[in-house]
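Milestone 3.1: sequence recovery, worked example.
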């Protein structure tokens, strides 16, 4: 059969010329230039610098909610590369599409990087925190969890709507509104579950005292009792010391507790008083006895300290002073004991964390920080240890939260171990084999799996370490000193979700929206 193609053997010049195929004119990069079908222009191959640019453009476009292409469009107009702003934006959007076709994996990585960077912008997350707190999400249980999920659903919806509308370039208001609604719905669906794990409980901006500050406050409060104009009958005080001594002989003796019995003798003879023969004793005289037992762990030392505090609060032995003054002494003593106790708990956690840090830095190439911290802290829960008997149920619950680990930290650590182990080795080895067999360098990306595993495990370890450090603050915040500071400081919403979970939420949302754009669910091109 005769053909109208001049390059065919059976060409017949009498036949009419072949019609030009429909479709945009283009210059083919590869393929047969004489085929009669529409010619498809492929993205030019990229150099290493070009691939870096592909990654950077995807990251910057995601970070700016699609404004990167708009700014590039304005730049093209100023440089004379485009006749109008809309034409410049069209060129920028076409360039972005070309780069995504040429470097799909790097573009996805850029989207993730841009969304991650958004999570670290100061002020991000305030919508979820504030809305969750306003709806009653500060407590524990089902209803507060639903409130937090609602708050972070709102924040996720705003993120999705902004990304979807920002990546729309049609110039049609209906397209912007429709895409914003679709993006908002998907963003809310992704963001809401993360709200369950957020902390939106209001908290004070007051600084958290250290163990040294708490012990110093306790000492100051004991000293403040010296200024209260109240005193006690000396004979009754000495008789009470005799009764205390007889009681202590049931559990100890002067050989086992020399400091305790010497202190009792000093109180009985008045050796620490300015006037041993005075008919009354003052809070300062009693505090001098207590100071001799500060830090003493002999049998009976704790009972003697408690006896001295109780005696100062007793109205029976009071020789002078009002009820209000005695109440002032009681308040100072209670606050002093509270600060000292909180200081001891805080010091124990601080020292345990420091020991854990020293331990993991000298073992296992410093890769097991999370496990080391948890192993050292769990020893505080041993009921046979001295610390285990002292901690309250609330304090033990705080310690267990750290030792059992956060779900996200555990997930990062488990994934990191898998990627650094046989899974990562298989991915890297398989990538090398595939690259050698095919000549394509893309499978070499498998060599990055162990590196990604190390990064994930490092993130999990860092989260556990941070949680252990926060435990120090939790102990200190139960002190009277912190309550006083908090009463004089402003109150703000809790820390919320945290940068890492927010970055994961952003990455998931952005990729879902990108898939919708690729499938034509949301029109994005031809801004006018």
């Amino acid at each position: 059969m005769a053909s109208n193609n001049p390059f065919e053997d059976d060409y017949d010049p009498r036949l009419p010329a072949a019609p030009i195929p429909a479709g945009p004119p283009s210059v083919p990069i590869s393929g047969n230039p004489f085929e009669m079908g529409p010619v498809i222009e492929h993205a030019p191959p990229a150099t290493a610098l070009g691939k870096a640019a592909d990654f950077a453009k995807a990251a910057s476009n995601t970070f700016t909610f699609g404004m990167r292409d708009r700014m590039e469009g304005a730049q093209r107009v100023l440089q004379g590369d485009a006749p109008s702003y809309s034409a410049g934006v069209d060129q920028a959007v076409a360039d972005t599409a070309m780069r995504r076709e040429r470097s799909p994996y790097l573009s996805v990585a850029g989207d993730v990087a841009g969304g991650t960077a958004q999570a670290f912008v100061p002020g991000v997350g305030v919508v979820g925190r504030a809305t969750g707190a306003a709806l009653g999400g500060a407590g524990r249980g089902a209803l507060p969890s639903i409130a937090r999920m609602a708050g972070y659903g709102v924040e996720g919806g705003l993120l999705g709507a902004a990304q979807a509308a920002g990546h729309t370039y049609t110039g049609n208001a209906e397209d912007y509104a429709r895409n914003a609604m679709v993006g908002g719905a998907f963003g809310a669906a992704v963001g809401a579950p993360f709200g369950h794990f957020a902390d939106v409980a209001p908290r004070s901006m007051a600084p958290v005292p250290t163990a040294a500050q708490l012990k110093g406050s306790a000492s100051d409060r004991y000293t403040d009792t010296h200024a209260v104009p109240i005193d006690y009958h000396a004979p009754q005080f000495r008789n009470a010391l005799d009764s205390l001594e007889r009681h202590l002989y049931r559990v100890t003796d002067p050989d086992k507790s020399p400091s305790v019995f010497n202190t009792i003798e000093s109180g009985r003879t008045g050796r620490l008083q300015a006037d041993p023969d005075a008919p009354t004793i003052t809070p300062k005289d009693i505090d001098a006895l207590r100071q001799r037992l500060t830090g003493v762990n002999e049998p009976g030392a704790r009972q003697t300290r408690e006896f001295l505090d109780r005696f100062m609060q007793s109205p029976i032995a009071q020789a002078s002073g009002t009820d209000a003054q005695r109440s002032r002494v009681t308040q100072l003593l209670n606050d002093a004991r509270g600060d000292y106790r909180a200081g001891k708990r805080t010091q124990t956690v601080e020292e345990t964390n420091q020991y854990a840090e020293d331990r993991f830095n000298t073992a296992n190439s410093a890769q097991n920080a999370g496990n080391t911290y948890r192993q050292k802290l769990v020893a505080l829960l041993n009921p046979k240890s001295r610390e285990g008997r002292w901690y309250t149920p609330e304090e033990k619950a705080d310690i267990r939260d750290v030792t059992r680990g956060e779900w996200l930290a555990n997930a990062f650590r488990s994934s990191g171990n898998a990627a650094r182990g046989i899974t990562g080795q298989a991915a890297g080895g398989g990538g090398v084999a595939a690259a050698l067999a095919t000549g394509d360098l893309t499978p070499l990306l498998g060599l990055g799996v162990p590196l990604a595993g190390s990064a994930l495990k490092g993130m999990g370890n860092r989260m556990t370490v941070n949680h252990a450090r926060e435990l120090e603050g939790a102990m200190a915040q139960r002190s009277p000193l912190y309550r006083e500071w908090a009463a004089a400081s402003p109150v703000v919403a809790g820390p919320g979700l945290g940068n890492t979970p927010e970055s994961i939420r952003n990455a998931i949302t952005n990729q879902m929206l990108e898939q919708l754009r690729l499938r034509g669910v949301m029109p994005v091109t031809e801004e006018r």
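Strands lie at 203-204, 231-233, 280-281, 318-320, 491-492. The chain is about 65% helix and 0% strand.
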